[in-house]
Amino acid sequence: MLNINFVPDDYIQNSESRRINLMYLVLLLLVMAGLGGSFMSIKIRQRALDAKEELVNVNMAKAQQAINQFEELQAKRKVMMKTALTTVELLEPVPRSVLLASLTNNLPRGTSLLRLKLIQKQPSNRPAHSLPTANSTSKYQQAQAETAMSTAASVSPEKLLETHIDIEGIATSDRQVAAYIEQLNSSNLLSNVTLVESKEHEIKKDSAGDMKLRRFKLTAMLKEEVHLSNEDIKAIRERGIENAFY
Asked: Tell me, what's the pLDDT at 129?
């Protein structure tokens, strides 16, 4: 028996074309959906990366601020250390009360102080460091000279000051003046004790007549880099008090 198809060929072709077009449309929608999903995924990742980048920038800004604060603290610390060192250098190496007590402790019997003057000034006879010449025998000597120059340049001018002391007093005889000079020369604080003047000095009294004494002037220098412990200062002051009440 013969199968007779009553459907026209145009209808069949149109149906197949619609099915193919529908399939292409579905495939296009799937591709568009995939592209849209990929785009959204990329945007989400980009936003996450932007958030991480912003967080990193904030952390870097905080770290830079901490570094700046640390550098400021270091600069302030250096300034404070320099100020402290300058203050220490400007302070008297030996308190005047201790120096006065030491001068009083060494006074012989019948000797008194009238005037005491302290002067700080630059040394006049300090040798200057010479530059290395072409006649230097070795590089070692040149290195030593450069090291000495750099050391001298790094020393603060306050450390180079010398303390000169002018002492004026009265004694009953030149022998006491000599004994006083000997005592000061043996002191741990003074050096270069020198007699400047010793002359006769009269003190008028009412009934017993005039009393003849010796008025003397001395010069001395405070020793460089004098370091006294608290026990030494206490002993000097206690001895000065004992001599004052003796």
From this structure: 46
The token pair at 143 is: 């290195």
Place of tokens 């030593």: 144
Confidence of residue 246 (pLDDT cuts 50, 70, 90): very low
CATH of domain 96-123+139-245: 3.30.70.60
How much is the CA Rg of the chain, to the nearest whole Å? 49
In this model, does residue 188 exceed pLDDT 70?
A: yes
Tokens of 98: 């201790």
- Per-domain residue ranges of the chain: 8-91, 96-123+139-245
3-state secondary structure of 57: helix
